[in-house]
Amino acid sequence: MTDTIDPGVRRVGLLSVHTSPLDQPGTGDGGGLNVYVREVARRLAARGVEVDVFTRRTDPLRPASVPFADGAVVHHLDVGPPRPVDKQELANHLCSFVLALQRHPTAGTHDVLHAHYWLSGWVGRRLAPRWDVPLVQTFHTLGVLKNATLAPGDLPEPPLRLIAEERVARDADRVLVLTCGEARLLHRAYGLSGAQLTVVPAGVDLDRFQPAPRPGPDRAPDLLFVGRLQPLKGPDVAVRTLAAVRERRPDARLRIVGGASGAGLGTTGPDELRALAHELGVADGVTLVDAVDQAELAAHYHAADVLLAPSRSETFGLVALEAQACGTPVVAADVPGLEAVVGAGGTLVPGHDPAAHAAAVLHYLDDRDAWQAASRAGIADARAASWDRTVDRLAESYAEVVDEHRADDVAALVG
Q: Are strands 330-333 and 306-309 parallel, antiparallel or unpaired?
């Protein structure tokens, strides 16, 4: 692990327009992006970098600035109504976000801006040239991928997002991707070269997510789904998988941990999932739990026999990585983001047929040796995926783009 950052990188601005690292992952717009921003900000600050995170105020009672680690501060900008709003509506407030950030006391003091998600990239693309600093972009999810893998009941991403993503991708000094599959997609969709792309996988908190004693094997099988209740994540597939598992193991149960997001309301929200469970005759075996903090989430992983991750699309399967770190085998849809995370610690299932997912689950429930082998493999794989490794790669990327940017400035002066 690198203990310090290049001396040319003393201050970093992280843009997270639509969701704060202080928000609860697994509900609303909170998810892996929140965890990513929070964890890298803490670890960058621990290495001596001053980190400012800029987000939109969604609660009038939140202070304007909230330190959440020594050297890391979240700033809430007054942009639009001080309440959660749909991400589609947020596009109308991006110009206001730019103006608010230009008025902020820290404006223009950063050595690099790192934007997260396309909305933040839109802001960063306008501010970085004005402040004469490089822009680093992480999309986390891509509209072109979501539209290619739409779930039933989900709405396609609007043309505005697709156009904005293309412009941000081409204009950023560096695009950091979570997987090689995301890099290939950006190359195919927008013609980005290898020099513009760097793979920086997300990490896992190995102090929090680690093996622990488990309930005895004679109890009822316990399946787990963790994530936002939206069609993209496939909680409906998880309920249907339980119904198929119960044809062989009628005592099996499913816990669904997470809250409804805007995209899940009316389609795969709590009420719809309960109705589906009742329709399939498994309502007595389905428990819905509101999103929980990371410490409590680890206990859910430890209590489960198998984690279900039937996402229709996934840029990076952080939940699958966390489960494997705890020693819980994963049955996941074979999509690029999960393919990058789930190896011998689980099973990748082509498509979203509940019967196929149930067959993979039953393999682990029926064969204890297979379960233990997957558990050991998942733990070993997760140990190589720490957040410190992520920040090592971030530090290298920041140093490179800052050096390149300054070299371009010198060349412009000389020329």
A: parallel
Quote the CA–CA distance of 395 and 70 in Å, as a whole number: 18
The owner of tokens 């639509």 is 18
* pTM for the whole structure: 0.90
236, 253, 282 from 223: Cα distances, Å = 14, 6, 13
The DSSP code for 73 is E
Tens digit of pLDDT for each residue in 43-97? Answer: 999 999 999 999 999 999 999 999 999 999 999 999 999 998 887 889 999 999 9
The residue among 351, 348, 293 whose CA lies nearest residue 322 is 293
Residues 6 or more apart whose CB falls under 8 angstroms from that of 100 comprise: 77, 78, 79
User: Which amino acid is present at 284?
Assistant: D
Alpha-carbon Rg for the chain in angstroms: 22
Q: Residue 260: beta bridge partners?
A: 229
Positive or negative, the CA dihedral 405, 410, 413, 415 is negative
Which pair of structure tokens corresponds to residue 159?
């043309």
- What's the DSSP call for residue 386? B
Across the range 212-223, mean pLDDT stands at: 86
Nearest to 336 by CA among 116, 182, 188, 137: 182
- CA-CA-CA-CA dihedral for 300, 203, 156, 171, to nearest 10: 160
Q: How far is it, in rounded angstroms, from Cα 283 to Cα 246?
A: 12
Sequence-distant (6+) residues with CB within 8 A of 139 are 117, 118, 121, 165, 169, 175, 177, 182, 315
CA–CA distance, 3 with 136 (Å, rounded to integer)? 22
Give the integer Cα–Cα distance in Å for 377 and 163.
41
**Phi, psi (deg, nearest 5) at residue 72:** -130, 130
CA atoms of 382 and 413, how far apart (whole Å): 47
What is the side-by-side order of every strand in the sheet holding 135-138?
65-69, 72-77, 50-56, 11-15, 112-116, 135-138, 174-177, 197-199
Query: For the chain, which domains are there?
Result: 11-203+386-414 (3.40.50.2000), 222-383 (3.40.50.2000)
- Return the SS3 of 410: helix
Tokens 């596009």 sit on residue = 91
User: Cα(33)–Cα(16) distance, rounded to whole angstroms?
Assistant: 9
Q: Reduced to 3 states, what is the DSSP secondary structure of residue 28? A: coil
